[in-house]
From TrEMBL:
<dbReference type="InterPro" id="IPR035906">
    <property type="entry name" value="MetI-like_sf"/>
</dbReference>
<keyword id="KW-1133">Transmembrane helix</keyword>
<feature type="domain" description="ABC transmembrane type-1">
    <location>
        <begin position="17"/>
        <end position="214"/>
    </location>
</feature>
<protein>
    <submittedName>
        <fullName>Amino acid ABC transporter, permease</fullName>
    </submittedName>
</protein>
<keyword id="KW-0812">Transmembrane</keyword>
<dbReference type="InterPro" id="IPR010065">
    <property type="entry name" value="AA_ABC_transptr_permease_3TM"/>
</dbReference>
<dbReference type="InterPro" id="IPR043429">
    <property type="entry name" value="ArtM/GltK/GlnP/TcyL/YhdX-like"/>
</dbReference>
<feature type="transmembrane region" description="Helical">
    <location>
        <begin position="20"/>
        <end position="40"/>
    </location>
</feature>
<dbReference type="GO" id="GO:0015184">
    <property type="term" value="F:L-cystine transmembrane transporter activity"/>
</dbReference>
<keyword id="KW-0813">Transport</keyword>
<feature type="transmembrane region" description="Helical">
    <location>
        <begin position="52"/>
        <end position="80"/>
    </location>
</feature>
<keyword id="KW-0029">Amino-acid transport</keyword>
<comment type="similarity">
    <text>Belongs to the binding-protein-dependent transport system permease family.</text>
</comment>
<keyword id="KW-1003">Cell membrane</keyword>
<feature type="transmembrane region" description="Helical">
    <location>
        <begin position="196"/>
        <end position="216"/>
    </location>
</feature>
<dbReference type="Pfam" id="PF00528">
    <property type="entry name" value="BPD_transp_1"/>
</dbReference>
<keyword id="KW-0472">Membrane</keyword>
Length: 236
């Protein structure tokens, strides 16, 4: 048994460092860019074309939060090749498995994190917007220098939890043939006929990864809290 474990751990770690973590990190970064853009669109009070943009942003969040992640993976990887657009995609949209995973995880993460970011932005007192406008600051500067830094402190714990959840969700990438940790554990189990041992081992490795990320989350929260003081449950 120990030989099986010592032989399997390096293979699982390589898959984790080569596919699982990079896929989670890249998807989360792209997802956060999407989330910020969607959140800012949804809280905007501009009229005209922004009404349509707000509707599209709300529809995007609704769609990806209302459908299973596994189904989204299947649509992007197996479904899009059948979407034939003459003159643009005459043979359908065919994606590499890793790219399909990145796109799907990014869009899914963006939808969930958009609500977190939106709520955090709205949690900043309206008076701070008014005070910034009163001294001549423009909206972009107010967001960059006053609103977003405060909102980030509020959003950090739930966003960190979303990232940790994303690391675990990457195990679903096995369904579109990405050779991440869970897929490698399945391949090894098929050769040594020890599925319980292999699945327990990969579960422990996921737990190790997530524990390290949880420690990093705690450190970041302490780092950010060093610049704030809490009085009566409100940041001052």
């Amino acid at each position: 048994m120990w030989k099986i474990i010592t032989d399997a751990i390096p293979q699982l770690l390589v898959a984790g460092l080569k596919f699982t973590l990079p896929m989670a990190i890249i998807s989360f970064v792209i997802g956060m860019v999407i989330a910020l853009a969607v959140a800012l669109t949804r809280i905007s009070t501009k009229r005209g074309a922004f009404n349509l943009l707000r509707w599209l942003a709300s529809a995007y969040v609704w769609l990806f939060r209302s459908t299973p992640l596994l189904v989204q993976l299947f649509i992007v990887y197996f479904g899009l090749p059948h979407l034939i657009i003459p003159g643009v995609f005459p043979e359908g949209i065919k994606l590499d498995p890793f790219m399909a995973g990145i796109i799907t995880f990014s869009l899914n993460t963006g939808a969930y994190c958009a609500e977190t970011v939106r709520a955090s932005l709205l949690s900043v007192p309206q008076g701070q917007w008014e005070a910034a406008y009163a001294i001549g600051m423009r909206r972009g500067m107010v967001l960059r220098r006053i609103i977003i830094p405060q909102a980030l402190r509020t959003a950090l714990p739930p966003l960190s939890n979303s990232f940790i959840g994303l690391v675990k969700d990457t195990s679903l990438a096995v369904s579109i043939t990405i050779v991440e940790m869970f897929e490698v554990s399945q391949q090894i189990a098929a050769t040594n006929y020890q599925p319980l041992l292999m699945y327990t081992l990969v579960a422990l490795l996921y737990a190790v990864f997530c524990t390290v990320l949880s420690w990093l989350q705690s450190w970041l929260e302490r780092k950010f809290s060093a610049y704030t003081s809490v009085e009566g449950g409100m940041i001052s």
